[in-house]
Structures are given as C-alpha cells and as structure tokens.
Amino acid sequence: MQTHLAPEFRDTPDGQAAEAILRACVHCGFCTATCPTYQLLGDELDGPRGRIYLMKQVLEGATPTRATQLHLDRCLTCRNCESTCPSGVRYGELVDIGRRVVEAKVERPAAERAARWLLKEGLTSSLFAPAMKLGQLVRPLLPAVLKAKVPSPTGPEAHRWPTRTHPRKVLMLLGCVQPAMMPNINSATARVLDAAGIQTLVADEAGCCGAIRLHLADHEGGLADMRRNIDAWWPLVEGLTDAGRVEAIVMNASGCGVTVKEYGQALAHDPDYAEKARRVSEATRDLSELLPELVPALKARLGTRAGAPVPLAYHPPCTLQHGQQLRGGVETHLAALGFDVQKAPVDSHLCCGSAGTYSVLQPELSLQLRDRKLKALAPVAADTIVSANIGCIQHLQSGSTRPVRHWVEVLDEALGG
Question: Under a CB-based contact definition with an 8 Å cutoff, are residues 142 and 166 in contact?
Fold first, then answer.
C-alpha cells in the first residue's frame, strides 16, 4: 500500500513504524473474515482493512473525527487479523499508533474521559485491592452489572505460597488486578513450579505490565510502567541479588505476557532502556511454554490416573494464540498429564470479548462476543472451562454456570494443592 505521510509524522518513530506497516498491507481482505467486530457489525470500517484505511488517511493529513475514534475504539486488539494476514502486517502495533494520534486530535466527551482515567488509574492503583475486598463483602447487594465484575472471595489456599528453595529459579509478575481478583492463580503457579523443582520469585516493586495504559492511548504512561518493571526485575535478571540469576520471567496472564514480550520493541528508541528491554523480552515465557520440561516431573508426582482423562473445555486467549502465536501447547501437555482438553468445535480462534478494559468501555459488543463464545463451548462435555488469562476467565464466568478457571489451578489441585 503506497503512503504519503504528512510532514508532522514523516520523521517521527511512530510515523516511520506506521509507514512500514502500511506498506506491507496489500488490502486483500483476508483479515476481515476473522475479525469479531466485523462479524457482529458488518461494517468495513469495523474490520482491520477499514481501520487501516482510516489510520492511513489520518497519517497522511486527513482530520480525524469522532467517527474515526469510535471505529478504532471498537477494535478488540485481539490480533486475530495478524494470524490471518498473508503479508505479516503488524496490525496491533499500527492500531496503538493510530489510537494515540487520533486521541491527540479528537476530544472525547467528559464522561468518556473520566471512565478511561478511572480505568487506567484505578486498576493499577494500590487502592484496587481494598476496593475489591469491600466489593466482595457487599457482593450480594451489588447490582448485576457490578456483581459480574467482582468474583467471589477466595479460600485460604489462594495465599499459600511454597516455602522450599531450589537451585532453579524463575521470576513471576503478579500483575495489577490478579492478586486482588484471583490470587490463587499466582499461588497455584508457584506451587506447580515448586512441585517440578523450580522456585518462584517476585519483585515487589513491579506492577502493571503497561497494557492497560497502552491500549487506552496513554503511551507515555505505558512506557513508564515498563521502565519501572525493568528496574524492579533487572537485579534478578542479571543475578545481582543473593537469590542469584533467574532463568526466565514467567507470565501466567497471557495479556501481560504478550506486552512484556514486546518491551524491546516499545523501548527500542530509549537509549537508557533499549538493551535492558530487549533482554527482558527475550527472557519472558508464558507459563505454557514451560510445560514441556515440567511434564516428566509432574507426571511422577501425579502417578497413574485411574479411569478416563479429566475433561476440560479450553478457551485459548487471543493474547496467547494470536498475540504470542502459541497454539496447542496447553492441550498437548495437559493431555500428557491425564487431562482431556477440548477447544470449542467452532470459532475457537475468536475473541471472547474481554480484551482488557473493552468489556467496560464497549459492554454491548463485549457481551455479544461472550455469549457467542460460551455457546461455542457448550458442546464440550466438561464440568470446568479453563483459560490462560484473568480477563477471559472473569468475563466468561460472568455468563457461565460452569466454573471458569486458569488451567494451572486445575493442575495444582490434581497435584494435591
């Protein structure tokens, strides 16, 4: 696709990156077929190809409007289009650039500005945990729309962390909302790794991975989150503490994982952080990527399972299958451990509608996608739905009578907790 960037963008890092991405697009339209919002709305401008044209026009000097902003807002950033694209267009990077350019040129209504500020400041705040506890205390009294966002309180096992030390060590990001909403995911991860002879360390100074602010067009705020995390992790990455050097940075929320794996790209033009960011990205692994080497040790702990494999209905998050391009690992390796993991027979590649803050900012589309996903999973005969990202888990649970959990929690229970 030929481009002629406006002078204000021509010599900027964003402009150069956007131009390279736009030139890769041959506007074939394959992406449209797998775009969730296009499938729901049937509007070319609510699909990747249409949004690419909108962003191209803005970058070439056209004046964006509220309609431009709305079409970009409706994008889930699920990156299904990247899996479909034969030309390797980096749409996720382009839409982040397009959103912040439009955000700077189109003023939002006050109510929208307030909602977006509350999300990026509230979800990443130290006050989120006490607010969540209060919400859980009064959960029965909450209106349905709020109750769906507040999971039931967890049991004592959620805070039981292994105490053994091991020569092998990994670093784990606890996340911003996960410790308050679903703390057992982190504890279960540490216990499963402990069972395989790996010690899990955390850096208390680390916080939100940066995804929340990035996807709300707060580019500088997202980069600040990244730099803070790199500073917190660097002593353990370099082996500068008594704990020694960690062999990997493990992510059990695929939304965080895809963001941290792209720190090197996001900070490539920062002379103080570019090399550190590259090293951090290279060291980052989704928890499922560790499964191949964990299976032998965990299999010995599990022993011989009696009866048929345990059935699980699996929803692979977009950030895992499209963002990180990781497919099949959870199913294959859990099967080796005695589970029968089945994806939805149709539309397993489609987004569930959670998409970070999307379920709050675009509730109507989000709920349609949630219900569509649960309908697709309905034929899978399993008592439990599992996924690999807290946002997907919370969102699907809000519409499901079956429990929805992280797959590592189910594995942890099988190991005896």
Answer: no
Which ranges of 243-400 does DSSP label H, i.e. alpha helix? 254-260, 263-266, 274-283, 287-302, 318, 329-336, 358-361, 363-377, 390-397
Measuring CA to CA, how many Å separate 233 from each of 56, 281, 291? Answer: 38, 12, 23
Residues 266, 14: Cα–Cα separation, whole Å: 11
Which phi-psi region, left, alpha or beta, contains residue 57 (left: φ > 0; alpha: ψ -120 to 50)? Answer: alpha
What span, in angstroms and rounded, lies between the C-alpha atoms of 217 and 259?
14
DSSP string for residues in 102-123: HHHHSPPPHHHHHHHHHHHHHT
pLDDT at position 2 is 86
| pLDDT of res. 61 | 95
Is the distance from CB of 57 to CB of 67 less than 8 angstroms? no
Q: What is the pLDDT of residue 273?
A: 97
Q: What integer pLDDT is reported at residue 417 of this predicted model?
A: 65
DSSP class per residue in 358-370: HHHHSHHHHHHHH
Q: Dig out the tokens for 198 from the structure.
A: 């790996």
CB burial string 104-116: b at 16+ within 10 A, e below = eebeeeeeeeebb
Closest Cα to residue 210, out of 251, 149, 245, 182?
251
Phi, psi of 248 (to 5 degrees): -165, 160
Ranges of residues in the chain with a pLDDT under 50 are none
pLDDT of residue 306: 54
Neighbours of 242 (CB within 10 A): 4
Q: Tell me which residue of 202, 181, 187, 186 sits closest to 128, measured CA to CA.
A: 181
Could you tell me how far CA 153 lies from the centroid of its own chain?
Answer: 23
CA distance 265 to 94: 13
Strands laid side by side in the 249-251 sheet:
198-201, 168-172, 249-251, 284-286
